[in-house]
């Protein structure tokens, strides 16, 4: 149990560091008016990388919240947690990674082929959220003090 | 207790989820209602409306997939050629403005909420009664902006009596902005519905009940529509519905990855040079309907030409060099004998702007080319979308939409590669005299109160100047030189035969001969050149002011305007302001003032130049000037701008 909680809390904070830094990089591109990012002809890249940053950051927070939730929930078994953990990890790689790759090479308004990773990541995220939501229904509420 | 608690929790959960769903629905409704705050075009009355049909989908549909192309088009003057008039789209303020530059009583402009209103004399009413009308549409945004009001009769538009000059930031009477003899104001009511709609919108359909001009416009009604105001994506790429349908699914990635052309849409730059130029030529040409039935069909269904089609299949391109003897041309000339003469030089070269296609298709780089890769087309020099690597701002690119590599000699050097340009030009490399454009595309076409480069590629020729009256490139820069000088120079450099010259051609500067003897269009060309910096550098400016001052008295408003503008560029005239539409007495006083400034700032340069009609003592050669002015070509000049 503790392993899962630690694993996601650690992953979440490190992930948050990475994507917050990515946000800083994007702001720097704005600050220096880098045409490869800001030109209207690179609007698709800007959108894709913004989405990568946003999804990565939010998923990092989800990991932290999930880790805290697992730590507070005493009854979740490894059987319950393993698929959730795997799905969340997969989503955290595929979603921001797909957006990022989709913005490297793109076709006018269409992102590059990396975007194909995104739907898989989205399915994993939805599945993880569903499993978490279902598992919370089975958790006993700790007695109020 | 535990069961009850679980039941309560489930109910709270359901309530929470329901609340979220209700919030989402409310947000969706809010967005929908805010979009509906602007009434749909189909419900708009009193002006032409934008209604997509016949496969047209509008630029808003193109935008999500082609953001870069959309953005460069959005920054172009093609988009803003026709706009719905709003406080944001007009180029000047309408907020309680009085405009004196109109015939009769001043025009008054007002902003009423989101609406613009004007009070003026009705150009269509007997006795020109005072009327108030809502201003609903604009034409242009680059050099001039014209305003159209709802007449109150169907969707028929009338034109305000004054237009706004964008660069000069001033109002002028509508009639003063075109090359036309001064005369009583005339109505332009219905002109937008009957004429402008064809090229200033996308898939315009006049839908006037009877042919425009066949009956008094006040008895006609119009249900004019277009797919989109302005020259939008589908004007050049064709209707987009099939393309949108074919590319809504991710299978479009097959085209991305293979680089194959999409057969569901036209890319003008992928057409052969002749067909691609016709895409531009559908509007940038002098054309007429082949016959009356085709005009009636277009009136209802829009023009049948689609990008990629053969333009001549559905249009009669007026080109005197090739179809002067055609039945259609004879019919048009029978209707208006000045039909050709007003728009073309006597050798058939077009002399009005906006007809660049006519010039292109008579250019040797087009007519003599046998290889598509070395055939001149509009895209040899122009780019309809700003390139990604173009360092210019959108505003700078939009000025003439030149491709980034075509601003200098690069356009011509694509085919005419030369190791040593100056060996051909006999001018210093990088100088105005070594510019391909300046010698082979001189400023000999006129429109919108300025001259632009001829788009018929030609070489300077004194013989042609003598035969047609069209100033040659040498004498448009070397304004102080005679035709004889130009002929001898070209004979020496290029072995061009020296044509027979008159006495004046040998002793009086060619520019002055044209300025004093030419028709209004020719005078405008020389007046503009006198304000052109390369010509001023080549010819000196000390002698120019008195001749420009002569033109301040010209019978044509447009010539006076250009002369005044050129005068402003001369040393000492920084604070001089000439009002070309002021009453004659005031203009005469301003002319005297111009001469005073010239006398006060005059230098010795050009003081004793016979070719510039100065006597050895520095006085004017008044006898010759008067004689040449008496010989002026006073024929009526009415450009189809």
- Helical proportion of chain A? over 70%
Provide the domain count of chain B: 3
Number of strands of chain A: 0
Helix-residue proportion of chain B: 25-40%
The outline of chain B comes out as: globular
Count the beta strands of chain B: 17
Broad structural category of chain A: mainly alpha
Global geometry of chain A? elongated
State the major sheet of chain B. Answer: 9 strands, antiparallel
What's the alpha carbon Rg of chain A, rounded to whole Å?
18 Å
Strand content of chain A: under 5%
Q: Helices, strands, pairings?
A:
The complex is a heterodimer of chains A (145) and B (641).
Chain A lengths: L1 H30 L3 H4 L4 H30 L5 H25 L14 H22 L7
Helix pairs in contact in A: 1-3, 3-4, 4-5
Chain B lengths: L1 H34 L13 E2 L8 H4 L4 H8 L7 E3 L12 E3 L7 E6 L2 E7 L8 E10 L4 E7 L6 E3 L2 E4 L4 E4 L17 H10 E2 L22 E2 L1 E2 L3 H5 L3 H6 L6 H6 L14 H9 L5 E2 L3 H10 L14 E2 L2 H4 L3 H9 L20 H5 L3 H4 L26 H5 L11 H4 L7 H5 L10 H5 L4 E3 L2 E3 L9 H7 L4 H5 L5 H12 L8 H5 L2 H8 L2 H10 L3 H7 L4 H8 L5 H12 L15 H18 L20 H9 L11
Parallel strand pairs in B: 1-12
Antiparallel strand pairs in B: 2-6, 3-4, 4-5, 5-6, 6-7, 7-8, 7-9, 9-10, 11-13, 14-15, 16-17
Structure, described:
- The complex is a heterodimer of chains A (145) and B (641).
- Chain A has helices at residues 2-31, 35-38, 43-72, 78-102, 117-138.
- The two termini of chain A are 24 Å apart.
- Chain A has one domain (2-137).
- With 145 residues, chain A is mostly helical.
- The termini of chain B are far apart.
- In chain B, 37% of the residues lie in helices and 10% in strands.
- In chain B, the strands form five sheets. In chain B, strands 2, 3, 4, 5, 6, 7, 8, 9 and 10 form a nine-stranded antiparallel sheet that branches. Chain B has a two-stranded parallel ribbon with strand order 1-12. Chain B has a two-stranded antiparallel ribbon with strand order 11-13.
- By secondary structure, chain B is α+β, with helices and mostly antiparallel strands.
- Classes of the chains: A mainly alpha (145), B alpha+beta (641).
């Amino acid at each position: 149990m503790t392993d899962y909680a630690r694993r996601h809390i650690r992953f979440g904070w490190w992930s948050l560091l990475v994507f917050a830094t990515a946000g800083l990089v994007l702001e720097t591109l704005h600050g220096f008016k880098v045409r490869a990012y800001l030109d209207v002809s690179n609007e698709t890249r800007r959108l894709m990388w913004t989405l990568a940053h946003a999804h990565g950051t939010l998923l990092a927070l989800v990991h932290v919240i999930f880790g805290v939730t697992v730590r507070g929930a005493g009854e979740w078994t490894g059987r319950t947690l393993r698929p959730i953990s795997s799905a969340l990890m997969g989503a955290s790689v595929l979603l921001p990674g797909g957006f990022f790759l989709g913005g490297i090479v793109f076709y006018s308004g269409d992102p590059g082929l990396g975007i194909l990773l995104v739907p898989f990541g989205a399915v994993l995220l939805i599945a993880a959220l569903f499993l978490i939501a279902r598992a919370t229904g089975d958790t006993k509420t700790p007695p109020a003090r | 207790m535990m069961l009850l608690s679980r039941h309560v929790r489930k109910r709270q959960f359901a309530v929470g989820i329901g609340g979220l769903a209700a919030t989402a629905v409310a947000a969706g409704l809010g967005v929908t209602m805010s979009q509906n705050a602007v009434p749909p075009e189909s419900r708009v009355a009193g002006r032409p409306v934008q209604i997509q049909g016949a496969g047209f989908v509008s630029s808003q549909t193109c935008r999500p997939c082609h953001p870069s192309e959309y953005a460069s088009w959005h920054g172009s003057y093609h988009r803003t050629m026709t706009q719905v008039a709003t406080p944001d789209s007009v180029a000047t303020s309408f907020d309680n403005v009085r405009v004196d530059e109109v015939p009769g009583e001043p025009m008054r402009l007002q902003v009423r909420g989101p609406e613009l209103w004007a009070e003026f004399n009705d150009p269509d009413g007997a006795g020109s009664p005072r009327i108030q009308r809502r201003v609903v549409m604009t034409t242009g945004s680059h050099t001039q902006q014209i305003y159209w009001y709802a007449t109150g009769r169907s969707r028929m538009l009338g034109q305000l009596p004054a237009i706004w000059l964008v660069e000069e930031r001033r109002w002028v009477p509508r009639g003063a902005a075109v090359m036309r003899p001064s005369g009583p104001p005339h109505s332009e009511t219905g002109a937008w519905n009957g004429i402008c709609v064809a090229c200033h919108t996308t898939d315009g359909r006049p839908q006037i009940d009877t042919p425009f001009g066949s009956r008094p416009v006040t008895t006609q009604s119009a249900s004019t529509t277009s797919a989109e105001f302005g020259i939008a994506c589908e004007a050049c790429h064709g209707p987009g519905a099939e393309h949108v349908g074919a590319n809504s699914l991710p299978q479009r990635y097959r085209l991305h990855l293979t680089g194959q052309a999409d057969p569901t849409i036209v890319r003008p730059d992928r057409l052969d040079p002749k067909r691609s130029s016709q895409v531009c030529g559908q509007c940038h040409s002098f054309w007429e309907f082949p016959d009356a039935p085709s005009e009636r069909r277009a009136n209802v269904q829009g023009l049948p030409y689609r990008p990629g089609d053969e333009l001549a299949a559905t249009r009669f391109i007026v080109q005197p060099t090739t179809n002067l003897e055609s039945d259609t041309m004879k019919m048009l000339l029978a209707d208006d004998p000045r039909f050709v003469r007003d728009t073309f030089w006597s050798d058939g070269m077009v002399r009005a702007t906006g007809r660049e296609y006519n010039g292109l298709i008579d250019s040797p780089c087009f007519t003599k080319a046998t290889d598509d890769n070395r055939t001149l087309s509009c895209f040899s020099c122009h780019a309809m979308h700003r390139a990604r690597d173009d360092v210019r701002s959108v505003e700078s690119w939009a000025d003439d939409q030149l491709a980034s590599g075509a601003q200098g000699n690069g356009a011509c050097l694509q085919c005419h590669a030369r190791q040593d340009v100056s060996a051909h030009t006999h001018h210093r490399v990088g100088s105005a005299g070594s510019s391909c454009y300046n010698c082979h595309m001189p400023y000999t076409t006129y429109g919108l109160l300025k001259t632009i480069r001829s788009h018929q590629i030609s070489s300077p020729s004194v013989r042609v100047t003598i035969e047609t009256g069209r100033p040659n490139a040498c004498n448009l820069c070397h304004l102080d030189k005679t035709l004889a000088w130009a002929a001898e120079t070209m004979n020496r450099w290029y072995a061009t035969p020296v044509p027979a010259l008159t006495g004046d051609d040998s002793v009086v500067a060619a520019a002055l001969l044209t300025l004093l003897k030419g028709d209004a269009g020719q005078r405008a060309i020389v007046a503009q050149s006198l304000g052109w910096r390369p010509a001023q550098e080549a010819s000196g400016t000390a002698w120019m002011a008195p001749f420009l001052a002569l033109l301040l008295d010209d019978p044509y408003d447009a010539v006076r305007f250009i002369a005044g503008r050129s005068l402003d560029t001369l040393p000492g005239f920084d604070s001089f302001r000439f009002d070309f539409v002021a009453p004659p007495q005031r203009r005469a006083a301003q002319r005297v003032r111009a001469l005073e400034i010239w006398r006060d700032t005059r230098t010795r340069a050009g003081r004793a130049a016979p070719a510039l009609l100065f006597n050895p003592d520095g006085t004017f050669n008044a006898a010759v000037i008067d004689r040449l002015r008496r010989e002026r070509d006073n024929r009526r000049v009415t450009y189809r701008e």
